[in-house]
Design goal:
The complex is a heterodimer of chains A (452) and B (89). By secondary structure, chain A is of the alpha/beta class. Helix content of chain A is 44%, strand content 18%. Chain B has three helices and four strands, in the order βαββαβα. Chain B has helices at residues 15-25, 57-71, 81-87; strands at 2-10, 29-38, 41-49, 73-79. Classes of the chains: A alpha/beta (452), B alpha+beta (89).
Chain lengths: 452, 89
């Protein structure tokens, strides 16, 4: 039964508390587009994406109208392109990136993710060529996202790939230095990457997924913060309960939109990603939720504990609201995309070290963090290795999306605008990890008994 | 199929008349209306049946939104499913 209170609550969440569906993402398998002739392969890729996702944007807009809820992004994820590149060893994979860009333009989507390679145990044909081509691919395209999985709990960490990725991140930033190093903001290095992630820049369509499906990523940090603000004297377990109830409502919205999109497009429904994804907009910050819990500023002592509780409560509430949950599910902490994180970083309260600790208890990892432009590739690799180790040992997804701010120093800011926001540049340690990184090889997979 | 139309803003003459006028034009049947005026703030929630609609739902949404802009009111038109799924297990 409808009642007035519920109706007004829903409208308030959307109007005043920035509740939105962050993305509907169509996952498309390109395995049937593999061809030894790269031009033929590209044509098949373009045709398949346009055939499947030609109506994605219009459908998203129709659902926005129907339910009165904004769907901020319409996106596509595809099979890791390294698998297609493997069949054409003498060609540059950048041709695929340009084809994806052409398909993105035709479909009108915000991003296509999947310029990716999975090398957690080693490189197969196509992987290294694709990885080496990432800086150029992200330079000559605008809406293509790239990711590389360099480690997993079952296979350990591929340190040869970690070493290369340090160089690739730096080179990507250098090639786009005239555009605030935006290339590096579209590149993620994963440990334990998931195959059904709807969020960028790390989305790709895993080989275990069906031919085509629809995923939904929800948002709503503002809604959670305002719900908590109504109970200034509640105990922590009461707060956890409020978060669960709010996450349930947010996720139900995602489930409804996903089911409707799948129905209209005639494509199976994949998953809802139960995420609190912030934006730089006022009132849409994960940091502000932590501050509402009682921290003077995000990043101070106690932040990891608050975030752990938040992340767990979001999952507990959301999981009952959806038929299938997946993706990265949890609270995101992308520094440049969160007004509260930006303030805390500018203030010096939120440091790289604290962020690293926070990633042990929440979704994903070191995300959208600008570092000084003179950072060495080995140091980037070492940061990736640290973060991957957290993911590997804790059996969770972790990622690194660092942006070396070429020509800039700590204390300055990179301005991306839009959803990507602005990133205060953080200082890094000046002692070199080069010898460790240059050893190469693999960190063996951890054991999962004798846990301490 | 039903939808919910909410109207919030400064009270003036003929709000209900104009909103229900658009409904009638598009074949939308008004089922229930809750309305209150507190001092000069007008708040109305209207439950309507859109099964026999002769236009696209998007046109109803656009019609109501532009009426809201003209009258300086905030008018939202949403399918009832969003409220049902959000607030019921």
């Amino acid at each position: 039964m409808l009642n007035v209170y519920n109706i007004l609550e829903t409208i308030r969440m959307i109007q005043d508390e920035c509740l939105d569906i962050r993305t509907i993402t169509m996952g498309i398998s390109l395995l049937d587009c593999i061809d030894t002739d790269i031009d033929k392969a590209c044509e098949k890729v373009y045709n398949k994406i346009v055939a499947k996702a030609g109506n994605l944007v219009a459908t998203g807009q129709k659902i926005e109208k129907e339910y009165g809820i904004p769907i901020v992004n319409k996106r596509i994820s595809v099979t890791p392109i390294a698998m297609l590149a493997a069949a054409c060893p003498n060609e540059s994979p950048v041709k695929f990136a340009k084809t994806l860009q052409r398909a993105a333009d035709t479909c009108g989507v915000n991003f296509i993710g999947g310029y990716s390679a999975l090398v957690h145990k080693g490189f197969s044909a196509g992987d290294e060529a694709l990885i080496r081509s990432i800086p150029e691919a992200l330079d000559v395209t605008q809406n293509i996202c790239s990711s590389v999985n360099i480690g997993s709990t079952k296979s350990g960490i591929n340190m040869d790939a970690v070493k290369i990725m340090g160089q690739i991140v730096k080179e990507t930033a250098e090639r786009t230095a005239d555009r605030d190093c935006i290339g590096a903001a579209k590149l993620v290095v994963f440990c334990n990457a998931v195959e059904d992630n709807p969020f960028m820049a790390g989305a790709f369509h895993g080989v275990g997924e069906p031919d085509c499906e629809i995923h939904v990523g929800v948002s709503g940090p503002g809604v959670v913060r305002s719900a908590l603000a109504k109970y200034p004297d509640a105990s922590i377990n009461e707060l956890a309960d409020i978060i669960k109830k709010t996450a349930f409502k947010i996720t139900r919205m995602g489930q409804l939109v996903g089911a409707r999109a799948s129905d209209l497009l005639g494509v199976p429904f994949g998953i809802v990603d139960l995420s609190l994804a912030p934006t730089p907009a006022v009132g849409d910050s994960v940091a502000h939720i932590l501050e509402e819990m009682g921290l003077e500023m995000c990043g101070t002592h106690g932040t990891t504990a608050c975030l752990a509780m938040l992340n767990d409560a979001v999952k507990k509430g959301g999981v009952m609201a959806s038929s299938t949950v997946g993706g990265l599910s949890g609270a995101f902490i992308p520094v440049s995309e969160d007004a509260g994180m930006i303030d805390a970083a500018v203030d010096g309260v939120l440091s790289l070290e604290k962020l690293e600790a926070m990633t042990a208890v929440c979704s994903v990892g070191l995300d959208m963090i600008a570092v000084t432009g003179d950072i060495s590739p080995e140091t980037i690799s070492a940061i990736i290795a640290d973060e991957a180790a957290i993911g590997m040992v804790n059996t969770k997804t972790t990622a690194v999306r660092l942006i070396p701010a070429i020509g800039k120093k700590a204390g300055e800011t990179l301005e991306f605008g839009g959803l990507l926001g602005s990133a205060p540049i953080m200082a890094i340690k000046d002692k070199s990890p080069a010898k460790f990184i240059n050893r190469g090889g693999r960190i063996p997979a951890p054991m999962h008994s004798l846990k301490n | 199929m039903r939808a919910v139309i909410t109207v919030i803003g400064k009270d003036n003459v003929g709000i209900l008349y104009k909103v229900s006028g658009i409904c009638a034009e598009m074949g939308v049947n008004v089922i229930e209306v809750t309305q209150s005026v507190l001092q000069d703030m007008f708040a109305m929630i209207m439950l309507v049946d859109i099964t026999g609609m002769n236009k696209d739902f998007a046109e109803l949404v656009d019609g109501m939104t532009s009426l809201g802009e003209k009258l300086g009111l905030s008018i939202h038109t949403m399918h009832e499913d969003i409220f049902n799924s959000m607030h019921n297990i």
